[in-house]
Structure prediction request, 185 residues.
Amino acid sequence: MNGSTRNQWIAVGVIVTLLAGALTVGVFLSEDVLRVQVGAQAPDFSAIDLATGDTVALADYKGEVVLLNVWATNCAPCRVEMPSIQRLANRLRPEGLKVLAVSVDVIGQERVKAFADELQLDFTILQDRKQRITATYQTTGLPETFVINRHGEIVHWHIGADEWDKPAHINRLRRLLNDTTKGNS
Prediction:
């Protein structure tokens, strides 16, 4: 084998190795990209509970039906939808619905609490000042809301404000609340 042929085979080997590496990285990245979608397991996250100061994780709600809302105080659509989330919480809390509203504000906790007090919100308000949940849940804007069933699966994902106490949402959530089978999550 002459030097030119050997160099060509080395180049081919390098290219094949690079392509294999790129394919491997692509597979791992595609799993992350596809990870947050309806039908997927909801990724765990942690944030500070503004009522208690404790760190709370989604894993703490294993086996529960959760409405997870990602929002911020400076988000006008978030302000618009919060009263409907409160009405939904009032209506379905006795049936077991857990509402987790995660503020991604970088401002102090007192200002987020003042916002919640102004709107008379009494469901669980969490704060993630480092905004890790936005990467974990691959949010594209605010608000974004995820409905998570007892098995830990995302069963509904809504981008933008909505009226969460409308009959379609109440019916969907009641069906989930009435499903008492436990998953493997």
Observations:
- Strands lie at 46-49, 55-57, 66-71, 98-103, 124-127, 144-148, 154-159.
- The mean pLDDT is 90.
